[in-house]
Amino acid sequence: MSLSDRLLAFGWPIPLAVLLLLQLGTGSGAIVTDHDRVVTCYISTWAVYRTGTASYNLDSFDATLCTHAIYAFAGLDEQKNAIKSLDAWQDLKDNYGKGGYERLVSMRASNPHLKVLLAIGGWNEGSEKYSNLAADPERRQAFVKNALEFIKQYGFDGLDLDWEYPTQRGGKPVDRENFVALVRELSQAFRKSNLLLTSAIGAGKDTIDAAYDVKTLSKYLDFLHIMSYDYNGSWNGRIGPNAPLTSKDLLNVEYSIEHLLELGAPASKLVMGLPFYGRTFVSTVAKARLGDEANTEGFPGPATKENGFMGYNEVCDELKRNPDDWTLAWDTAAAEMVATKSNGTASQVIVYDNTRSIANKVRFAVRQKLAGLMVWSVDTDDFNGLCAPEMDTYVDFGDRDKVALAIPAPVNGKYPLLKTISNAILVAQDELTQENVIPSEPDEVPAPGGTGSGPSGAGSKLVGPVSGAVVGMLLFVVTAIRYV
């Protein structure tokens, strides 16, 4: 039982329990067992081949910060209608391999809360081969049998389908129905073995409407991992936010989630994606801003080496090393940070999510009562803890006249974005709880000279700042609870 569960079991109100947990925090971040949301962590296992401090070994993974870990990616063996390793030396133990599957699965021994899934697909796998598989009932049945055996053989808790995307990139219109058939048949087999079945889901309206029978898929999938990022990029020839929370068009996180809910996806199965990376742009406009024209190819990060892409760890390292070169601006609508480097005639621009972005998006997910959050991907967080703490993570939270939020200390050390998710869930839940229970202000005005003991006085907050005496008392109680 988590500390929060124990506090509630002892009769502490939810806001007070949350407040205490945050007061006791040291800035290191809450662990996932302090809240009831899903935190799904994709691991792009090829990140081990990056250079220097950006190289990500599975030993760097912190399982206490995730409820679900997804090993990405496996591929499709078209001849055998089976799952295949895409990097046998990294994934398997055969021929002195590094045994990545086993290493990640084994982390459950010391982290019993953790579920470990294998993802099949991804962008580089394409779409056509999955389209052909899903179209053939006999091949589907063979794949279901083989996939079940593969997942059991390596001890995974389930399978994550990352077909990008049905009906797209060489797919066919009938993929929409065939994907449902594939998911239904997999679900029937996996549920008999108490295994999870999830899927990554594209977030653009056109992709959603063409590729997914959302309501039917939701019957068979345990979670839908919404890839709510890559709404804009250098391919547009214009500077735009990677994962805007809101925007004037339909390319934003709020619209994607609300559209999926309207199409029949239950909130309890939606896991909203958060990007741990930014999109980069090169523009001939001096001091360029969002909306300005840009080249159709952005600049790469030094370690990820992908044009138009830069990991959060690369961004914060660059800002730390060359702070005078960059101008930072917060875009309120997008809830993203914009970093601009200009030489007077041209600009380099990075639009990325920092801890403030993550907190704002978590807040939206909590208010929508979603199952939780998903991250792509943990290997581009600051997993070495090299970057400076960010001080304004929760500046957008709470009407301070209505709620008394206990704000955690700035996250310091490793995994600042990932830790912010769990901390922000607690703050957002506390904020929402207080908003729901605080009475409206009374019509009558207190008599002059009154003590303010009524609803409009100093005592009107349901939860106020914790005094030293109260904290001391609570610490005594918590000490006892830890040994219950």
TrEMBL record:
Q: Which PANTHER family match?
A: CHITINASE, CHITINASE 2-RELATED
Q: Which SMART domains match?
A: Glyco_18 (SM00636)
Keywords, A to Z, come to: Glycosidase, Hydrolase, Signal
Region labeled Disordered — which residues?
438-458
| GO cellular component terms listed in the entry, alphabetical order | extracellular region
Report the PROSITE patterns cross-referenced here: GH18_1, GH18_2
**Biological source species:** Anopheles atroparvus (European mosquito)
Q: Name one GO molecular function term.
A: chitin binding
| Signal peptide segment | 1-29
Q: What is this protein called?
A: GH18 domain-containing protein
Q: Which family is it part of? A: Belongs to the glycosyl hydrolase 18 family.
Q: GH18 domain: from which residue to which, for each copy?
A: 37-428
- GO terms for biological process, alphabetical: carbohydrate metabolic process; chitin catabolic process
Q: Which CDD domains match?
A: GH18_chitolectin_chitotriosidase
